[in-house]
Design a protein that fits this description.
The complex is a heterodimer of chains A (312) and B (346). With 312 residues, chain A is α/β, with parallel strands linked by helices. Chain A contains 11 helices and 13 strands. In chain A, the strands form 3 sheets. Chain A has a 6-stranded mixed β-sheet, sandwiched between helices. In chain A, strands 11-12-10-13 form a 4-stranded antiparallel β-sheet, with helices on both faces. The longest helix of chain A has 16 residues, at 168-183. The radius of gyration of chain A is 22 Å and the shape is elongated. By secondary structure, chain B is mainly alpha-helical. A 4-stranded mixed β-sheet of chain B has the order 2-1-3-4. Chain B is elongated, with a radius of gyration of 28 Å. Classes of the chains: A alpha/beta (312), B mainly alpha (346). The A-B interface holds A 56-58, 78-79, 81-82, 86, 88, 90-94, 96-97, 101, 104-116, 118, 132, 148, 152-153 and B 1-2, 6-8, 10-12, 15, 18-19, 22-23, 179, 182-184, 186-194, 346.
């Protein structure tokens, strides 16, 4: 293993983790630079949580190397824990404690950290300071989880599915926290199965499937691999053949997306859509569905795996 | 950045104590339940003079006279039965002795029942004297009621020991197991918190309500049932502290690996039930066979109960209860050591 440069926050090589009947992580490599917000994007069961928990030093890998801020988990785990903040998937904290008590408790674990009052304010939890954790809404609980991760003043923040199940407003609040932390020089590794979250927050994204990284790059780079700015989704009765779609001018390889064909449009929509409609008409079929959208990471994932991100 | 120093052990302990106090069920089990138990048992076994032993007299010509004689005895409670009904009552234990007026007078009873043998002696005595027997030796009975010899005197130290065991084991085992099932342990393990701070806070948090618990039970025993502490209060406190710590250690061991609340509940009951029965809480452990005695004496609750009784009712001092305290310490140290070794954070 070569010495990582001081600008490397997280680095792992050849991670493998097997459970009784399944290989959760299957030879995974990553390198996250300091100051970067890095996203692990993938469907449920892709191995995101196992990967992030190995990086957090909570799960022992069967094979592979992990370096966090230049040290290994076997060197001095406590010293490393002082420097990272973690929010587990569906974090549960003690229901009977109040918000302020919980933050204060977590603060006490760190030699140096932020003032609990400041963190309380930062995460807009001031009004809830005296409320029991058990009585909080999902969004408030998640903000508290992030508060507990931030109160130790970490250099790296690990967030496992931070916005799963949250209402839109809570998601926006959380995104703001991530953005602020990064603006302050922090490094973030987050997992998500929301493509919009990854596109919005992450400098770079690794698309993970079956325990491996299948694509890596900035969201814009990944989308550009589709070679299409837009995607047309179409379905007709009877079905249009793949070959006839492929024969249209200015389209990349079509792929199935649920009941529809998804057709990446390389050229201009203004040329391709009339061509598609003409194709449907020529074949004597009836148009059932037609929609267009800008290409997203979701399209990249579907194009690469043939599955939706939210499918199991 | 905040400059002030925080003590994780202190914060963990305070949080643990607050959690406990915010759990109304737990407060009930620790403070109210033992009191209710003491009151109920105290009422059931209150001192009310010796019981009368029920005896039957078979209906017949001389039955009336026999009944009148037996009624003079303060020990016997005589009733008349038909011949078949009398035998039935004797067989089912409703009467201890069946008398058939003679001559000869017949006593029917089961020799293995102590109450039957007492009834036979008493009936024999009163009937013989009524028939004209003169006792050559004058006897005078002097009755003694010693404080400390009543059932409630036996019961209060036993309940205190039982409570220290229950609270110690349940408070630690449930708290740890539920923190594990809710993945709170995992979250804590992801911080630089010292593992030992967490484990110690479980014990210290429990000690926070040890004194109120002791005061409630010992105070209730004193005020309601007139069971005073005859020995040293300091020694009593030290014994309670040691007992509570030991059972926290056992609780920690029980919860070291279990992943569900059901699991901890089953394991906890498995550990505690034998001690409920064997360790002399409700009745003396000496009723069990001799072969079992060394094993029973080695149980932590037996050691604690024996020490508590020795201090509360017999005013014994440290050297006399040292063996019991030694047994408790050994249990505590071994449980902790094994629990630390086995403990899982996930």
């Amino acid at each position: 293993m070569t010495t990582p440069s001081p600008s490397t926050a997280i680095r792992c090589r050849g991670l493998v983790k097997r459970y009784a009947d399944v290989v959760a992580v299957n030879g995974l490599d990553l390198e996250v630079t300091r100051g970067e917000c890095f996203g692990l994007l993938g469907p449920n069961g892709a191995g995101k949580t196992t990967t992030i928990e190995i990086l957090e030093g909570l799960t022992e890998p069967d094979a592979g190397d992990v370096e966090i801020l230049g040290s290994r988990w076997t060197d001095n785990p406590r010293a490393l824990r002082e420097r990272i903040g973690i929010s587990l998937q569906e974090t549960q904290l003690k229901d009977k404690l109040t918000v302020a008590e919980t933050i204060r408790l977590f603060r006490s674990f760190y030699r140096n950290g932020r003032d609990p009052e400041t963190v309380l304010k930062q995460l807009a939890l001031e009004e809830k300071r005296g409320a029991r954790v058990g009585k909080l809404s999902g969004g408030q609980k998640q903000r508290l989880a992030v508060a507990c991760a931030l109160v130790g003043d970490p250099e790296i923040l690990f967030l496992d599915e931070p916005t799963t199940g949250l209402d839109p407003q809570s998601r926006l609040q959380l995104w703001q926290q991530v953005t602020d932390f990064r603006a302050g020089g922090g490094t973030i590794l987050l997992t998500t199965h929301y493509m919009d979250e990854a596109e919005r927050l992450c400098d770079r994204v690794a698309i993970v499937d079956h325990g491996k990284v299948i694509a890596l790059g900035t969201p814009a780079e990944l989308i550009s691999r589709l070679q299409a700015a837009n995607v047309v989704e179409i379905s007709a009765e009877p079905e249009i053949s793949e070959d006839s779609l492929r024969s249209l001018p200015g389209v990349a390889d079509p792929y199935r997306r649920g009941p529809n064909w998804a057709v990446p449009v390389v050229g201009s929509l203004a040329e391709t859509v009339p061509g598609l409609l003409a194709l449907v008409e020529r074949s004597g079929a009836r148009l059932v569905h037609l929609s267009t959208h800008q290409a997203t990471l979701e399209d990249v994932f579907v194009a690469m795996t043939g599955r939706d991100l939210r499918e199991n | 950045m905040s400059e002030r120093r925080y003590s994780p052990l202190y914060e963990l302990t305070v949080c643990r104590a607050k959690e406990f106090l915010r759990e109304p069920e737990a407060v009930f089990w620790v403070f109210i339940f033992p009191l209710l138990l003491a009151v109920a048992l105290g009422l059931a076994f209150r001192s009310k003079g010796p019981d009368q032993i029920p005896v039957g007299v078979v209906a017949g010509p001389a039955a009336e006279r026999t009944l009148a004689v037996l009624a003079e005895s303060p020990v016997l409670l005589a009733r008349q039965y038909g011949a078949a009904a009398g035998l039935d009552a004797l067989r089912t234990g409703r009467i201890s002795l069946l008398v058939e007026a003679g001559p000869p007078t017949v006593f029917r009873f089961d020799e293995t029942r102590p109450d039957s043998r007492i009834a036979r002696l008493e009936a024999d005595g009163v009937l013989q004297r009524a028939a004209g027997r003169k006792d050559p030796l004058p006897i005078e009975s002097k009755l003694v009621t010693e404080k400390g010899s009543r059932y409630i005197d036996f019961l209060i130290p036993g309940l205190l020991g039982l409570n220290l065991m229950g609270t110690g084991i349940w408070s630690v085992a449930f708290s740890v197991a539920s923190a594990r099932t809710q993945r709170i342990l995992k979250r804590l393990a992801a911080t630089p918190m010292r593992k030992s701070d967490y484990l110690f806070s479980q014990i210290l948090g429990r000690m926070g309500f040890l004194f109120p618990e002791m005061i409630v039970l010992i105070g209730a025993g004193w005020l309601l049932f007139d069971v005073p502490v005859r020995g040293s209060l300091l020694l009593l406190t030290v014994t309670c502290l040691l007992g509570a710590t030991t059972f926290c250690g056992i609780g920690l061991l029980i919860a070291a690996r279990v992943k569900t609340i059901e699991g901890v509940s089953g394991l906890g009951n498995l550990v505690m039930l034998p001690m409920w029965l064997l360790s002399g809480v409700f009745f003396s452990a000496e009723r069990f066979p001799d072969a079992l005695q060394p094993w029973i004496a080695a149980l932590p609750l037996t050691a604690l109960n024996d020490a508590l009784r020795a201090i509360i009712t017999e005013a014994q001092s440290l050297p006399e209860v040292a063996p019991q305290l030694g047994i408790l310490t050994a249990w505590g140290v071994v449980s902790f050591a094994v629990a630390l070794k086995l403990f899982r954070w996930k």
